[in-house]
Amino acid sequence: MREFLLESTCKSFIPKRHEESEKVFPERRNEDAFIYIEAEKKMDLEHTRELVFVEAENIMGIIYNSKSGNTRLKWRQVYGELGRLTGEASVNTLVNLFSSGIKIIEPLKAEEVEEEG
């Protein structure tokens, strides 16, 4: 999920030291288009443009809402670094998910989501 966040938000301007660290994630604290990292331990490192780079350990969840409003995703930890991603995604987001290594994407219809909930 980290690779997707970097691809979608800051690939062109992330400081190299943050890109190389697997513990650094971007957060966006804008009310409408936000990215939130839920972790056992989290510390702000640097503010760049509209993002805050945070160092996070033991990620339990990630919330991602795009600037366009067309994507709203939630990732929940299942075991270790494995998790389940749910929500609504635009075509551009699907491309970014696939290119960042998330290969299994199973679309659900609204009826199926209601049955799960």
Task: Throw out a few tags for this protein.
alpha+beta; five-stranded antiparallel beta sheet; 117 residues; globular; 5 strands
Describe the structure.
This protein is α+β, with helices and mostly antiparallel strands. It has one domain (2-103). The protein has four helices and five strands; from the N terminus they run ααβββββαα. Strands 1, 2, 3, 4 and 5 form a five-stranded antiparallel sheet that branches. Strand 2 and strand 3 (51-65) form a beta hairpin. The two termini are 23 Å apart. 22% of the residues are buried. The model has no long low-confidence stretch (mean pLDDT 88).
Instruction: Give unreliable regions as ranges.
Output: none
Radius of gyration, whole Å: 14 Å
Number of strands: 5
Number of domains: 1
β-strand amount: 35-45%
Distance between the termini: 23 Å
Structural class, by secondary structure, is alpha+beta
- Let me know the average pLDDT: 88
In short:
With 117 residues, the chain is an alpha+beta fold. Helices cover 25% and strands 44% of the residues. Strands 1, 2, 3, 4 and 5 form a five-stranded antiparallel β-sheet that branches.
Helix and strand topology:
Elements: H1 2-9, H2 16-20, E1 24-29, E2 34-48, E3 51-65, E4 72-79, E5 82-88, H3 91-99, H4 110-116
